[in-house]
TrEMBL record:
Name this polypeptide is given: Uncharacterized protein
Length: 86
């Protein structure tokens, strides 16, 4: 998962609740600029040996051909719980 430690001070992390929700990826629906940026990433990943790729990178490469959806409705439960507790 994405690392927040370097982006926020200790004080900020104490005052703010953080939640991580994944989305979906459908290359064909991206706009021109986003497709160009994703092509740069794809080329960079394809230059690596297959054994050097982590599972997320392998999944992303596969998603160029077959759209993927990482959304999970259960992921909102911590957000709802946090709101109810306030």
């Amino acid at each position: 998962m994405f690392e927040i430690s370097s982006n926020f001070t200790g004080e900020m992390k104490e005052k703010v609740n953080f939640f991580y929700l994944r989305g979906a990826f459908k290359y064909q629906k991206l706009g021109f600029v986003d497709r160009m940026m994703m092509n740069v990433l794809r080329k960079k990943l394809l230059k690596k040996k297959p054994e050097e790729l982590d599972e997320d990178s392998k999944g992303l490469l596969a998603a160029y051909e077959n759209p993927i959806d990482w959304t999970d409705r259960k992921a909102i439960e911590p957000i709802v719980k946090c709101i109810k507790e306030q």
